[in-house]
Sequence to fold (214 residues):
Amino acid sequence: MAKPRSYSGTDIDISFDMSRCIHSRNCFLSLPQVFDPARMPWVDPDAVPAEEVAAMIRTCPSGALQFARKDGGAEERPAGINRVRIQENGPLELTGDLRLNGESHTRLTLCRCGASKNKPFCDSAHKEAGFAATGMPPASDKDSGGNEIGAVLEIRPVPNGPLGLVGPMEVTDATGGRIARGEKLFFCRCGQSANKPFCDGSHKAGGFSAPAEE
Fold:
C-alpha cells in the first residue's frame, strides 16, 4: 500500500492517503483554490488561510485528508460522541475517538458492501458493484446506552465476518436520526445481511472472506 503523500505549506501541512479516499469531493467543492485534481500538484496548502484549510479537512469523511498546524493553531480533536452514520448505498461513516489496529483516528469510512480491496476501509467499490442499501433503515431495538462523552470506540473486524464495534456509540441514518445506541454492536460488511446495517450471519452462507489482519 502506498504511503500518504505530504504537501507542505507555510502554516499548515496536508497529508493525503489515496487508499482511503471515497471521492466525496468535499475538498474540491469547498476549497478549489487548495484542492484541484486538474492541477499538478493538486494540493496548495498556502492558497487560503490555514484555519480555512483545517476546517475543510475536518469534513473529509474518510480521513484520507489530514493536517498538521505549524502556526500554533488548533489540531483536530475527536467528536464528543462516537457516531456511526449509514450512507445511502455506501459505507459506514464513523466519527469520534476511534481505534483500529492500535492506531487512533477521528474519521473513517468502512466498507459494508464486501467488495473493497482495502478492507476494512471503503475504496468506493460499492459503486461498481451496484451495492444497494438504504441510508434510512428503521429504528432498531438496540438501545443500551452509548452516549458517553469522550470514550474510545474500538473497531474490531471479525475474520470472515462482521465489523465489531466496542465502546459507546450512537448509530444514525443518513439525515442524523438515531436508529440505535450501544456499547457492542456488529455491523454487516459482506453486503448480504437482510438486517442492514447490522449483521445477521449471512456472511457464513455467502462465503464472505476477509483476513484477520487487515
